[in-house]
Amino acid sequence: MREWYRLPLRVVCRLFVSRRSIGVQLAARSDRPVRWFIDPDVGPTRPSIGGYMVRENVWGEYLAEMIGTAFLLMVGDSVAAMAIVYNAFSGDYWGICILWGLGVTMACYLVGAISGAHLNPAVTVAFAVYGGFPWRKVPGFIVSQVIGGFLGGALTYALFSPAINAYNATHHAVRNAASGLTTSGIFFTHPNVGITTGHAFMDEVILTGALVIGILALSDAYNSNGQLGKIQPLIVGLLVAMVGGFGGELEAWALNPARDLGPRIFAWFAGWGQNAFPGPNGYWWVPIVAPILGGIVAGAIYNFLLRPFMPGNPKRAKVAGPVQTTVQA
Predict the structure, then answer these.
(1) Distance separating alpha carbons of residues 295 and 213, to the nearest angstrom
(2) Where is it located (predicted)?
(3) How far, in Å, CA of 262 to CA of 153, rounded?
(4) Residue 270 gets which letter from DSSP?
(5) Which residues of 5-39 are buried (b: 16+ CB within 10 A; e: fewer)?
(6) CA nearest 322: which of 145, 177, 196, 204?
(7) CB under 8 Å to 34, separation ≥6 — which residues?
């Protein structure tokens, strides 16, 4: 029987294969020959989809960033929902930090070999400024990350919407009012009690700087204490947990414009309205601008004040590159 998916799969794969690609006949599981489209410079070295091997290209990286960020935000926002709606952690904030960190770790393992698992516009911009990451890829990475954040927020809402509605009913809260600000924290950040918008901006610069400088140190080939191979995503996850542990309560430690903006857009559509945009005291822009600035400042500190004094590794090329340099090791 002719497989129904062959024709649409052929159309999709044609979008991703090189114009120089060639077709070769290989045996499928049904012992019938099927057409593979492969890059002649690579050969049939990667997994296939229904008998077709997709050529490595930038669209695959964008897709990976979107899926990785969606996975991360599904985990992280769901942790926030458990904490807010069910009081699941009973004041154990470190447990929240660890689970966020594990979400980062698994997202890195999931897509790191494809895109480098930036998952964060602040990281992408820092690598573009200091690490040689191509600027032409930056807009696509950032858009993919924000879309992934939106999808992560949507997945969290799909899981917890009945619980959120029950919580709001019990506490007589309305999403698009001040009383709905508590449940809005499931999706996006805002300053805690006593923290002004200006102070929160400074906090996000410092906290994101701590994250980015740690990632740069871990992924620098000239740092003899970095390049940790397959355990590096775990260390990056612990780094995120550490940052949350020492400063997360200030304004829920966005650290990541996509982590805040994507779910914030979803929450606006889902009824949180003015709590999402413009947010308390017009806060919506702070988790976008401050983390990017923090990443740039941290990159300058690392590259100009620390990196020149590294002992060096002549066997490796110059790199302050993304997580993929270690995930693939």
Answers:
(1) 8
(2) Membrane
(3) 7
(4) I
(5) eeeeeeeebeebbeeebeeeeeeeeeeeebebbbb
(6) 145
(7) 25, 26, 27, 28, 50, 51
Residue 35 phi, psi (nearest 5): -90, 125
Burial classification of residue 256, based on how many CB atoms lie within 10 Å of its CB (0-12 exposed, 13-18 middle, 19 or more buried): buried
> Three-class SS string for 54-72?
CCCCHHHHHHHHHHHHHHH
Two tokens, residue 288: 């976008």
pLDDT in tens, the chain (329 residues): 455 655 665 665 555 544 433 333 333 344 444 343 444 454 556 777 766 667 678 999 999 999 999 999 999 999 999 999 999 988 789 999 999 999 999 999 999 999 999 999 999 999 999 989 999 999 999 999 999 999 999 999 999 999 999 999 999 999 999 999 999 999 999 999 999 999 999 999 999 999 999 999 999 988 988 878 899 999 999 999 999 999 999 998 999 999 999 999 999 999 999 999 999 999 999 999 999 999 999 999 999 999 999 887 655 544 444 444 333 33
Domains for the chain: give ranges and CATH numbers: 1-56 (no CATH), 58-327 (1.20.1080.10)
Whole-model pTM?
Answer: 0.84
